[in-house]
Amino acid sequence: MATIERHVTNALVALDALTPCREAAKVMRDKKIGSVAVREGGRVVGIVTERDLVARVLAAGDNGAMPIGEAMRTDLPSVGPDSSEAQAAELMRTHYTRHLLVEEKGQVVGIISMRDVIQLMLDEKQWLIDELQIYISGR
After folding, report:
1. What is the per-residue DSSP string for the chain?
2. Distances (CA, A) of 19 to 10, 16, 120
3. Which of 17, 118, 129, 133 is 20 to 30 Å from 56 by CA-CA measure?
4. CA 70, CA 110: separation in Å to the nearest integer?
5. Residue 10 binned pLDDT confidence (cut-offs 50, 70, 90)
6. How confident is the model at residue 1 (pLDDT cuts 50, 70, 90)?
């Protein structure tokens, strides 16, 4: 079973925890991403997602001025780059999230999205199909 390592996005987009949610939404829109990392004191402490902005900001009646540090989830787990796609998918499923921070030696090294995990699963299935076709054809 393959690890998630080659599908991790290492170019993490991060904003300070005091950044207004409105600004985070603009960054997500402009970069066509679904989440941004949240930094406090130069260290990544979590992420805020599009879903967080809708559920914790807009639905609560905030105008987007709320700092992203208040809108981010505090219960989000992280994974290591050596985790399998099944482990990452299970964490996403049980924690109702589409994004996970990837940590190595206590440091955040990237992020992986549900889209990345699905692509990894599809790549694995295609490899298996190709190998079976070679076996069946006797090449």
Report:
1. --BSGGG-B-S--EEETTSBHHHHHHHHHHHT-SEEEEEETTEEEEEEEHHHIIIIIITTT--S-SBHHHHS-SS--EE-TT-BHHHHHHHHHHTT-SEEEEEETTEEEEEEEHHHHHHHHHHHHHHHHHHHHHHHHT-
2. 22, 5, 33
3. 118
4. 21
5. confident
6. low
For the chain, the straight-line distance linking the first and the last C-alpha, in angstroms and rounded, comes to: 24
Residue keyed to tokens 């409105």: 22
pLDDT per residue over 35-92, tens digit each? Answer: 999 999 989 999 999 999 999 999 999 999 999 999 998 788 899 999 998 999 999 9
Q: Tokens 């690890």 label which residue?
A: 3
